[in-house]
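Researcher: I've been going back and forth with a colleague about how ABC transporter ATP-binding protein might be arranged in three dimensions. Neither of us has a model we trust, so I'd like an independent prediction. The organism is Nocardioides pocheonensis, in case that matters for your notes. Sequence below.
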Amino acid sequence: MLTIDRVSKHFGGVYANRDVSMEVPDGELRGVIGPNGAGKSTLFNLVAGHLRPDSGSVSLDGRPLDRMPPHVRARHGVAIVFQGARLFPGMTVLENVMVGAHARTHGGLVAAVVRPPSQRRQERETRELAERCLARVGLEAAAQQPAAALPLGQQRRLQVARALAGQPRVLLLDEPASGLRAGERTDLTDLVRELNADGMTILLVEHDVGMVTSLAHRITVLDLGEVIADGTPAEVTTDPRVITAYLGA
Ligand code: ADP
Ligand code: MG
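Model: Here is an independent structure prediction for ABC transporter ATP-binding protein. You can compare it with whatever you and your colleague have in mind.
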């Protein structure tokens, strides 16, 4: 269970998050929606540890994450695919995923590219893990291609594979479908649904409300940094406050 307890974060005079609380049980797919600037990305960064809250707490299975830097939270099972995340364009598809695996196991990029012989066995295990993650997102055939050569939809699936290489318990996806064509969007929706069906707890921020309502067990709606609704897709999409603030009357 991921517990977000009254987190607040301000930038200057703007409250990006104000007393945001959320409980996400294991196995849930939670949608997070709201207008631009509502605080969705800020919330994800607070959970993954890339921002520190002014107040409030985030915990996983009752263990507070607040004092942990991002790579330690990753080791405890929190993975994030950032909004507009970039790949390493000069690396192959497989190498991009291996960086994700190393981020958890051996302290990041330097360890991922410098390979002393003593680490060969670890290296092979990392490679095998990366290959499994690529297969999971349907990109095993592209393993040796340069990452930059992939179409955008496959690049997004590669981002997901890289996050999976950290073997997370909770996966945060921030607008993974933005800019994708309809077919790519359908493929990504199917992938997210399959990962959740396999047991992955997922928090999904998406601008495409149809995608979120088709996937999510529950949806939390943010507006101006505050939770204005929390419920099933049917409940939040018929909530008058949500319609006024976001969905448009
Ligand atoms: P969303 O992801 O819902 O579009 P964000 O979390 O990115 O919203 O932003 C919430 C608010 O916080 C916005 O008003 C935004 O301008 C502000 N904000 C976010 N990050 C920063 C930052 N690093 N510095 C200053 N203001 C920020
Ligand atoms: Mg955002």
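Researcher: What would you highlight for our discussion?
Model: I'd start with this: The chain has a mean pLDDT of 93. After that, consider the following. The chain is about 40% helix and 25% strand.
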